[in-house]
Design a protein that fits this description.
elongated; 2 strands; 5% strand; 129 residues; two-stranded antiparallel ribbon; mainly alpha
């Protein structure tokens, strides 16, 4: 029960931060624009990787797409990092997705911290921009 509350809280906090970032980006804040851009790219790439997990028949997909055998003992699906393995060596998710996701998520976090820092400094010194 606690985990559901934490998940809902994380979603609400994420939406609140997104709305605040969009509002600051509309005011011309450079950090907010970078945060918004990187978060959209991160979400887009995650959804692109997630589409590789939407498979009705994993065995058929492994044999037709990757031309490899399917081993049920080695099959594993994870959402973070994105992965759907056919066997110990082959994955249906392209190899570039998870490393690029890590870089984009780190950039989004750094830009988000810059946005928060800028917002706090602007509140303390209303005359400065």
């Amino acid at each position: 029960m606690l985990s559901e509350f934490l998940q809902v809280g994380a979603i609400v906090a994420g939406l609140w931060c997104l709305v605040a970032t969009v509002r600051r980006a509309a005011c011309g804040d450079r950090w907010a624009r970078w945060t918004l851009l990187l978060s959209v790219l991160t979400c887009g790439l995650y959804l692109w990787g997630l589409t590789h997990l939407l498979v009705l028949d994993v065995r058929e997909m492994c044999e037709l797409t990757l031309r490899t055998h399917f081993d049920p003992g080695e099959h594993m699906e994870t959402l973070l990092p994105l992965s759907m393995t056919c066997n110990a060596d082959e994955d249906l998710v392209p190899g570039y997705v998870n490393p690029v996701l890590a870089v984009l998520a780190t950039g989004t976090l750094a830009a988000g911290l810059g946005t928060v820092t800028r917002a706090v400094r602007t509140q303390r010194h209303p005359g400065r921009r």
